[in-house]
Recover the amino acids of this structure.
């Protein structure tokens, strides 16, 4: 089955580091960009960035540049999103999604279920 | 403040038709970037509903349709059903600064 499986919910304290994962199944993981999307409690979707697992090329949203780091390991079909110093404002659900890109078309055609992250002292 | 502007909420009775607007600018929709729509049912992940202005993924009923004009786009839902109650997001690509952009989301209530 074609799917993206995300790691489980996390509860962290401010200042701690965190790395969440997104594993792809059923398709050529290395050949499709993976995007990360944040959804803060009760709010809308925010694009964070995309990564190409084939060569780990990345493109960050200006809003998230320097705040998070995306990485990928194509050998285990997994993409990662990490923080080095969490803040309470990082509390959100983080979704990974596969990018379909062809010509002018760019959209997320497959989504993971999301990883809830809670940052609280 | 989202780059793409959507009404916060719309509502309609079962069987009615509703439309959800998505207004962008000359650096995204107005520049010809595709508009895509996602449906997020309560407590679940978003799902691709409509892409490339006028295409539905398999499994999406033809009650859903899309259109665009200038720097705006619209999603229309005909024959409203209770299961359509969800939040709908438009998405496009912006050239300045380059990247993906979402609308703020529109919550659809089926009365």
């Amino acid at each position: 089955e074609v799917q993206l499986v995300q790691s489980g919910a996390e509860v962290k304290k401010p200042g701690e580091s965190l790395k969440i994962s997104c594993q792809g199944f059923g398709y050529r993981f290395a050949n499709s960009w993976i995007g990360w999307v944040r959804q803060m409690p009760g709010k809308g979707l925010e694009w964070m960035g995309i990564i190409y697992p084939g060569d780990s090329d990345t493109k960050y949203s200006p809003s998230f540049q320097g705040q998070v780091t995306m990485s990928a390991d194509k050998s285990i079909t997994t993409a990662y999103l990490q923080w080095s110093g969490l803040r309470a404002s990082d509390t959100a659900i983080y979704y990974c999604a596969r990018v379909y890109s062809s010509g002018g078309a760019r959209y997320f055609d497959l989504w993971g279920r999301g990883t809830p992250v809670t940052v609280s002292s | 403040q989202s780059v793409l502007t959507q009404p916060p909420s719309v509502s309609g009775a079962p069987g009615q038709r509703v439309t959800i607007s998505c207004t962008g600018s000359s650096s995204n929709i107005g520049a010809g970037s595709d508009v895509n729509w996602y449906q997020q049912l309560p407590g679940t992940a978003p799902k691709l509903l409509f892409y490339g202005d006028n295409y539905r993924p398999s499994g999406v009923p033809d009650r859903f349709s899309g259109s665009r004009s200038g720097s705006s786009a619209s999603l229309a839902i005909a024959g409203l059903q209770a299961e359509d109650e969800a939040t709908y997001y438009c998405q496009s690509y912006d050239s300045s600064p380059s990247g993906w952009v979402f609308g703020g989301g529109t919550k659809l209530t089926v009365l």
Q: What stands out?
A: Residues 30 and 70 of chain B are 5 Å apart (CA to CA). The interface with chain A takes residues 2, 32-34, 36, 38, 40, 44-48, 51-52, 57, 87, 89, 91, 93, 97-105 of chain B (CB under 8 Å).
